[in-house]
Amino acid sequence: MIATHFEFCFKHRFYFARIFPDLLPIYTPVRLEFTPTYFLPGVIMDSFLISIAGNIAAGKSTLTKALEKRSGGRIVSFLEQVDYVKKHGYLEKYYKAVSAYDRLKGAKLDGKNPDQFLKVKAEAEYWGYKIQETYFLSRLLDLGVLNELLREGQSVAQDRSIYEDQIFTKNSNNYEYITDEDYRKYQDLFELVMTNKPTPDLIIYLESDVEALKHRIVGRSRGEESELASPKNNYLSNLNDLYRPWIMKCGHPYLIIDTEAIDFRTKAGLEQVVAGIIRSVPGTRRLFE
After folding, report:
1. Measuring CA to CA, which residue among 247, 288, 273, 9 is closest to residue 137?
2. How far apart, in Å, do the first and last CA atoms of the chain sit?
3. Which of 31, 35, 151, 270 has the fewest beta carbons closer than 10 A?
4. 8 Å CB contact between 143 and 197
């Protein structure tokens, strides 16, 4: 029996409701406005999915849009959908909560106010889980749109795939922003729902120095990210430590671009990236001719 993406989601509605009760407002009336999609392995036409991976402010959106332009529309850009997260201020609250907890972890505990420590810890755990569940389900539903594009023969450059969720969730668990119980819950859900989903033909990992990332964050002036640019904030550094092992073990073809050595905002730099894509996936040559 063939199930549409809507039918798949509806089938697991009560599972989602039990695990992610706060997400049903996104899940039901807001995000399911696209045409039902069929997940049929082996019937996708001659199209390619290129996922752009990297830390915050690595240049993922910039490269995604540049590949669409360079290919003359043979590749369409699929940008990360964060409207719901930004509208409700989730990112700013998350960054502030985990940064506050990190600062408290590094201070001496004199035993005078243990309740304050526990309050800050609980706030970090709440937002650590909430931000991850929101992003995960949002990206899961976006896979329906991606699959439809690929099935119709349209190649796609995607700004951050759902597979990168594993990095952010592991980091949150490592630094106590997500409890062990919630981390296991996330892993079980990931394994449950990712069967027969579109997988990248190539992941381009944009590797960046932490200081360069912080400089870009200051330059683009997104208020919710201001905490990350602080000299003593280690959030970006912690993510960087997880990215290299992840990309090497991801199980998909990958290309690593050093963003300090290759500036793909320039014509010469972009051509270096295109050449790397063609070397990694020869069938993509026609997309850039």
Report:
1. 9
2. 40
3. 35
4. yes
